[in-house]
Write a structure and sequence with these properties.
2 copies of one chain form a homodimer.
Chain A (H helix, E strand, L loop, with lengths): L10 H12 L2 E2 H11 L7 H13 L3 E8 L2 E8 L1 H25 L7
Antiparallel strand pairs in A: 1-3, 2-3
Helix pairs in contact in A: 1-4
Chain A binds a DNA duplex (30 and 30 nucleotides) through helix 2, helix 3 and strand 3.
Protein name (chains A, B): Helix-turn-helix transcriptional regulator
DNA sequence: TTTAATACCTAAGCGTTTTAGGTATATTTG
DNA sequence: CAAATATACCTAAAACGCTTAGGTATTAAA
């Protein structure tokens, strides 16, 4: 992507969906996973950690600390509300893409 | 859409693309056009007018006033830079959708 | 004649992200 | 072995883009 950033508002969708796929993840792991599968979408820690804290505050995620060697990881998983919200977010994104296609009068994917 | 809003950053893409399709448009016309073809994407005037002013300031659009009866409309059209940026923005959006599909591991459109 | 639609605009506030740091442990490399 | 890089968490100021909530004025509809 020319512009360095992802479209604002999509970070939460990414987090929730990754946690739907993986059951338990810690913050740094999420940044690496995104880098691995979608190299153009840089998610920065400055955005990620506040987003995780907000999702936890909204009871969409729960957190638990796990010690690995001498280092502590904070693992997150979806709550029931989080699972529901994850589905909603995905639908929002699908709707957005469809509406954009109507306006742009072109398909947004080749697949 | 559940959430009332569009993904942040997409408004500029919408404006530029509509002006690619229509040559000349005024602000209010843009709001109505979007409402007409994508009823779920509400673009508000409070967002639109500052966005138009910024695009004009960045020399992607030029503006000219036209009197229609006793009422003045401010018509915008793309500059050469604007045409280039319009293409870039569309490519950015396409890239974004493709990268999101990789992360979500699902297609975002049925078409 | 009041309301709704057309047509422009601004400004405060809000939420999300960027930018730019900070701490500490573990591993790699020169 | 020392220094650099990677892992792992975090915060805070600032920028950014949008929402919300106004404002003015003209024209059309109820």
């Amino acid at each position: 992507m020319r512009s360095n950033s992802l479209f604002k508002g999509s970070l939460t969708t990414i987090i929730l969906t990754l946690l739907e796929q993986n059951e338990m993840m810690y913050g740094y792991e999420i940044t690496q996973k995104v880098k691995e599968i979608a190299n153009d979408l840089k998610i920065t820690e400055g955005a990620l950690y506040p987003a995780l804290h907000k999702l936890e505050g909204d009871s969409l995620l729960t957190a638990s600390f796990k010690k690995v060697g001498n280092r502590t990881r904070k693992y997150y998983k979806l709550t029931e509300n989080g699972k529901t919200e994850s589905v909603n977010r995905l639908n929002d994104l699908k709707d957005f893409v469809e509406q954009m296609q109507l306006i742009l009068n072109t398909k947004l994917t080749t697949q």
